[in-house]
Design goal:
Length: about 280
């Protein structure tokens, strides 16, 4: 695995791979890798000849009172995992390499980035879209793989790729879960004691909404109420939002008529977790 730290060297590597007619897949990460990331890397290998993983804890997507400084990092372990997954190149720029002094150009979406996660975390999606655009320009992949757990991020990255004409296919990988249903996330490392047990309620609530949906419930208020009651029964849970959105527009619905996503964001102490589930008649094959 080649370790590449500068944007220029990354672009040179990409150009030489492209000259050989090979397809590049990018898996962007902030490190502290878990099985969810590894499943995205395996998906990338299936669809491309060369796989690049970026590892960059992006300061621009953390708010001033968020966890940038304490975000979990274990670079040596990440590197071993990536070698075991036969990743071709690890792109790991420094913050100074990505954001030169005086940096003031951003990618900003003006509608969907303001609601839900965007409302709870002002500026978050501006940071995400900016860094993803910069990663696309550095790595020049044919496709990039993102997890479905960050559903609003995935929606916005697809929108950015389409509207800014990035010639890059955006591929979505399924959420990987612990045996009790908790979606894998680097932030799960913060959960201690009973909060860890209680965090599994998020998935149970989403599954209950799906069960009711499949029994014919289409009233979004009632579906949300059932999820809310279940989540708030966990003594350490604090609700941020529970919403049902139209998959095509990411706007909240009152009646579920077409493809929809149930989404929630819940705090356990200072740890904020998100999860979602597609409301579909049948499980994906
Ligand atoms: O999902 C993440 O880990 C990050 O938001 C991403 C896409 C790597 C951008 O920093």
């Amino acid at each position: 695995m080649q370790k590449i730290e500068s944007i220029q060297a990354m672009q040179q590597w990409a150009r030489s791979v492209q000259r050989d007619g090979k397809r590049i897949a990018l898996v962007p990460t902030m490190g502290f890798l878990h099985e969810g990331h590894l499943s995205l890397i395996r998906l990338a290998h299936e669809q491309a000849d060369r796989v690049v993983v970026s590892l960059f804890v992006n300061p621009k997507q953390f708010g001033p009172n968020e966890d940038y400084d304490r975000y979990p990092r274990d670079y040596a372990r990440d590197q071993q995992l990536l070698e075991a997954e036969q990743v071709d190149a690890l792109f790991c720029p420094s913050a100074e390499e990505m954001y030169t002094p005086g940096h003031s150009v951003y990618v900003e979406e003006d509608a969907v980035s303001r609601v839900l996660e965007g409302e709870s975390r002002p500026g978050h999606f501006r940071g995400v879209l900016t860094v993803v655009a910069k990663l696309f320009l550095a790595v020049q992949p044919d496709l990039a793989v993102f997890g479905r757990k960050d559903a609003q991020q995935l929606y916005l990255i697809r929108k950015m790729a389409r509207e800014l004409n990035f010639p890059i296919a955006i591929v979505a990988g399924p959420t990987v879960r612990e045996p009790d249903g908790l979606a894998l996330s680097s932030r799960n490392a913060y959960l201690a004691g009973t909060a860890r047990e209680q965090a599994a309620t998020l998935h149970r609530a989403l599954k209950e909404a799906l069960r009711l949906y499949r029994e014919g419930e289409r009233n979004a208020y009632r579906l949300r109420k059932v999820m809310m009651d279940m989540v708030l029964a966990a003594s350490e849970a604090e609700m941020d939002y529970i919403e049902i959105v139209d998959t095509a527009t990411f706007t909240p619905v009152t009646t579920v008529q077409g493809p929809a996503l149930a989404l929630l964001a819940v705090r356990f102490g200072s740890t904020r977790l998100i999860d979602n589930m597609e409301l579909t008649a049948e499980d994906a094959p």
